[in-house]
Amino acid sequence: MLPADWPVLIVDLKDCFITIPLHPDDRPKFAFTVPTINNAEPAQRYQWRVLPQGMRNLPMLCQWYVARALSGVRKRFPDAHVYHYMDDILVAMHTQEELLRLQPQLLNVLHSHGLQVAPEKVQQQPPWKYLGVKILERTIRHQEVQFVQSVKTLNDAQKLVGVITWLRPYLGLTTTQLSPLFELFKGDTDLKSPRELTPEARKVLEEVQQAVSACQVYRIEPSIDVTVFITTPDLHPTGIIGQWNDDWTDPLHVLEWVFLPHQPHKTATALFELIARLIIKCRQRCLQLMGADPSKIILPVQREEFDWSYANNVSLQSALEGFSGQITYHLPSHKLLQVAKILNFLCDPKIAKSQCKVPPSSLTVRAKTGKAIVTWQDGSEWQVLEGHEDGSAQLVELKAAVMAFEKFSQEPFNLITDSAYVADIAQRLSCSVLKEVSNPALFDLLKALWCAIQARVHPYYVLHVRSHTNLPGFVAEGNTRADKLANPAWVAPQPDVLAQAKASHGFFHQNAHTLQKQFQLTTTEAHEIVESCDDCHALGAPLPAGVNPRGLKALELWQTDVTQVAEFGRLKYVHVTVDTFSSAMWASAHTGEKARDVIAHWRQAFAVLGIPSAVKTDNGPAYASQQASDGEQQPRAKVRVRNLVTKQWEGPYDLIAMGRGYACVSTDTGTRWLPSKCVRPDLRPQRQNSADRQGGSRDQLESHQVDESSSDHSDDSSTDSD
C-alpha cells in the first residue's frame, strides 16, 4: 500500500529480458549452431551471453534478478517503499528530498547489474502510471479500459469477465450487479460454443465503463487504523478494507474491495459460514498488502447473534483464530455500507433444538409413483394432504416438504420424515443462503422451501426416522399411514392375484419361491414375474476367471504370446515374452507366427534374459507343435570358457547364443557375455563332462594349478585320440 502524499518515482527498464547477463559457466549450456548454405564453410557456433528467449522460467529469473539488484537499495533506505514487477519499478519516500537522494543510487545499482533504464519512461510527477493504474497524490484509479462488445463464444465471455474481475477490487461492483455477465457461462462448456450478450449484459458493461471512469480507491493514511467492513448487499457478503475518520470529507476511504465467488460451493451455505470465508480472505489480503492483521473488523450482525454463531460455528472460529484486534457489530452510516433487509431473519435460527409441544406432522414420499403425502393428527383423527410431482425421488421429497411448511406456516409444528435428504436440507435452510442449481425444477422447489422457512415466525422441529419399522407409537404410526397412502399397492388391493404379485414384487422384489407361496402362483408364473423385472432378471453366472500362475523367482515361469503391429509391414508379427516374477520383457519382430519363428524368438530371449524352467503359452498350433517343444527342450552345445583372471579354461557350460564376435554362455553364476576368443567347444567325452560337473569346484581348483600350455597340449592330445 502506498502512503498518502508520499512522492513517487517510477522507473521502466529497457529490454529487461535481453540485458540480464548469463554467468560464464552457464553460457556453454546455451550454445547453438548456425549452419551454412550447402555446407560451404564450417558451421558457426555461438553462445548466449544474456538470458535466452523462449525459456519458460524466464519471467521468474527476471523477477529474481531485478530483486537481487534492488536489495542493496532496500538495505540503504529501509523507510522507502520499493515495489517491482518484472521490469517496472516503483519507489515512494516520505519527502521529495529523500526521493531525490535515492534516485541516483538506484540508477547506479541498476547500471552496475547490466540493466538499462529507459529515460523517456522515468516518471517523477503525478499522475504516475503503473501496471494499468493511475496513481495520484491521495487516490488510485484504473486507466481507461475498452471492453470487447462482440462476444461470440464462451471463450470470449470468459476473457471479458476475467478483465472485469481484475478491475473489481478498485470498482466495488457487487455480485448482483454482475450477475447478467455470469449468466453467459451457463450451457455448453465447449470453449467454442456460441454466446451472445443479452440486453442486461450490455447494460452491465455500460455500468462497468462508467465505474472505471468514476470509482477510485485511496492511498493509505499511516496514522489511521485499517478496518475491515463486512457488508451484505443482496445477501452476498462483501468485504471492504478501508479507513474511517470522521474529520474527512468522505469519512470512509476504501483501500480495496474483497469479494467471494459468484456461487457458493454448497447448495445451502450458512450465512455465517460465508462471512467466515470472507474474513479469512480479508485477513490474508491485509497480510499481503501491509504484513499485519487489520485493527478492527465490523460485522453487520447483533452481538447476541455473533456470540451464538461463534460458539456453534467451526468456520467462524477458524476465521478468527489468532486475531488480536477489535470486533464490533454496528456498521457506521455510509452509502457503501449496505445491509440486506432479510439479514436479521437469516441470523435468527427458526429451527427448534427440541420437539415442539404440538401434534407431529409426518411426511413421506412414494418416489416411483410421484405421490407426496403429508399426514398429521387433528385431535383423534388423522388428516391427509396429497400432492404430485413428476421427476426423481429428490423432487418428490422436496414437494412434500414444501406442502408441509405451507400448511403449517402460522403455527409451530414437528416435521417427521423418513427422507434423510429432506431432514438435512430443512435444517440447513434455516440460516443459509441458497445456491442456484442447474436443474430448474429442483431450484424452484428449493427456492419455495427456502422462502417458506424464511417467512416463518414460529419454530419448527425436524426428526428423521427409518421407514417400515412397524414400531409402536404415534411417530411410527403416522409414518406408516403416509407410507400406505403413498403406495398404490396398499391403497386398493387388486382383484387379479397375478397383478397383485407383480405390484408386490415391484416394491419388495421377492424371489420366485416367495411369490409362489405368498400368492399361490405356479412355478412358471412366479419365474416369469422375476425375469420380467429390470432389477431382478436372471443373469448367467460369469465364467470363473481362474488364477494366472506366477513364478516365485526369476527364470521360473515365462509367458509368451504373439501380437500383430500392422505398421511394421512384413515384420508385423511381434513375439512377446514376459517373466511372471520380475516382469522382465523381451519382444522381437518376425515374418510369421509359426514354430520356427517361435524358436527364433526364444533363442533371442534366452540370450538376453536367461533360460527359464517353464514357458506358459496358449494352445496355438505354433506352440503345440513338436518342433517348438523340441526347440524349447533341445540340449545346448557344451563349451569351455577361459577365465580372464586366472587364464584357465573352465566348464563345460551351455552355449545360449553366438555371433558378431561375442557368445552368451549360461554359467553357474548366471548368464555371461564373453568375447568369442574366450569360448571354445568342449570336445571331451560326455562321461568326462559329467564327471567334471559332479566334481564341482574341486576340479576347477586343481585345473587352476596346471600351466596354460599343458592344458592346451592335453586338449590337443585328446582331440588327436578322438
TrEMBL record:
InterPro entries: DNA/RNA_pol_sf, Integrase-like_N, Integrase_C_dom_sf_retrovir, Integrase_C_retrovir, Integrase_cat-core, Integrase_Zn-bd_dom_N, Rev_trsase/Diguanyl_cyclase, RNaseH-like_sf. Residues 1-135 form the Reverse transcriptase domain. Residues 545-627 form the Integrase catalytic domain. Residues 369-491 form the RNase H type-1 domain. The keyword Cytoplasm does not apply. Residues 637-684 bind DNA. Coiled coil: none annotated. It comes from the Eukaryota. The keyword Lyase does not apply. One of its GO terms (molecular function) is RNA stem-loop binding. Residues 695-716 have a biased composition (Basic and acidic residues). Keywords: DNA integration, DNA-binding, Endonuclease, Hydrolase, Metal-binding, Nuclease, Nucleotidyltransferase, RNA-directed DNA polymerase, Transferase, Zinc, Zinc-finger. Residues 618-638, 676-722 are annotated as: Disordered. One of its GO terms (biological process) is DNA integration. Residues 496-537, 637-684 form the Integrase-type domain. PANTHER family: ENDOGENOUS RETROVIRUS GROUP K MEMBER POL PROTEIN, RNA-DIRECTED DNA POLYMERASE-RELATED. Belongs to the beta type-B retroviral polymerase family. HERV class-II K(HML-2) pol subfamily. This is Uncharacterized protein. It comes from Hirundo rustica rustica.
